[in-house]
Amino acid sequence: MGQKGGRPWLLGLRDQLRLTLTLLRTGITQRLAPGLFGVSQPTVSQIKSKLEPIIGLALSFTGIPLGEAAATRPLVVDGTYVPTGNRKAAGSANYSGKRHCQCLSVQVACDLGGGLIAVSDPVPGARHDAAAIELTGWRAALQDADWLADSAYAATNAITPVRKKPGQQLHESDKAFNKQVSHFRCVVERCISHLKNWRILSHGYRRRLRQLPFIIALAAKLELYRIGW
Fold first, then answer.
1. Residues 19 and 116 in one domain
2. pLDDT tens-place string over residues 114-146
3. 130 and 89 fall within a common domain
4. 125 and 221, same structural domain?
5. How far from each other are the two terminal CA atoms of the chain, in whole angstroms?
6. I need a labelling partner for 54 at 20 to 30 A (CA). Which of 107, 151, 157, 159 fits?
């Protein structure tokens, strides 16, 4: 029977883990979570703060380094963003003109089957993918690799679509090549979609901005664990 008065029962470890993963998976606020788990908002905050680092530590050996993965298989790379909500202190550095919002930008790598391989550290949202691949250190890690990307990465060693020159039409062979590149590249969009099913990455991050790089890395580890790395 439940307690009729006084402080609510504390959650057991299993339910604390369920609460923490629910916050990450659904992106619900800490004001809504208490009603689902029968505890107070401060308790939700305490549980989350305690368990997230433990989950990250438990998953520390999940996945393999990007360079090691790139040495054994072709990869597909693309950039995506994590919206942060409008934060005055962040200024224009995190404002993406392309996406019309404040955000951080990450690089995502998958194999040709669409399985997640790695997610980079975030960079300011104002940076284009061509700059982000350099800032994250991924360009150096992929220097000797076989990888595909869109035309934003044309300055790298990636396999990218052939661009049409001004006033000229693409040759039929170039059109066929671009079609093949697009066919292989579509898997990374699906991979990003699965990653962002951890809704804390897609529904607008509300916590302290300095904690976001850890949350991005944690969500990536959880997705890698989910798909069986």
1. no
2. 999 999 999 999 998 989 999 999 999 999 999
3. yes
4. yes
5. 41
6. 107
Q: For residue 196, report the phi and psi dihedrals to the nearest 5 degrees.
A: -80, 0
| CA 130/CA 134 separation, integer angstroms | 7
> Is pLDDT above 60 for 7?
no
Question: pLDDT tens digits, residue range 172-182?
Answer: 999 999 999 99
Q: Give dist(CA 222, CA 229) in Å, integer.
A: 10
pLDDT in tens, 45-89: 999 999 999 999 999 999 999 999 999 999 999 999 999 988 888
Closest to 81 in 3D by CA, of 221, 219, 208, 196: 196
Query: What is the domain extent for residue 24?
Result: 13-58
Q: Pairing between strand 147-148 and 116-119?
A: unpaired
Reference 120, options 65, 161, 202, 168; nearest CA is 65
pTM: predicted TM-score of the whole model, two decimal places: 0.90
**Range list of H helices, the chain:** 13-26, 33-37, 41-58, 66-70, 129-135, 138-141, 172-195, 212-226
Q: Are residues 91 and 200 in the same domain?
A: yes
- Inside any domain, residue 4: no
* Amino acid occupying residue 96: S
Q: Could you tell me if 54 and 113 lie in one domain?
A: no
Task: Report CA-CA distances (Å) from 2 to 15, 16, 18, 102, 187.
Answer: 16, 18, 20, 44, 49
Q: Is 109 exposed, middle or buried (0-12, 13-18, 19+ CB in 10 A)?
A: buried
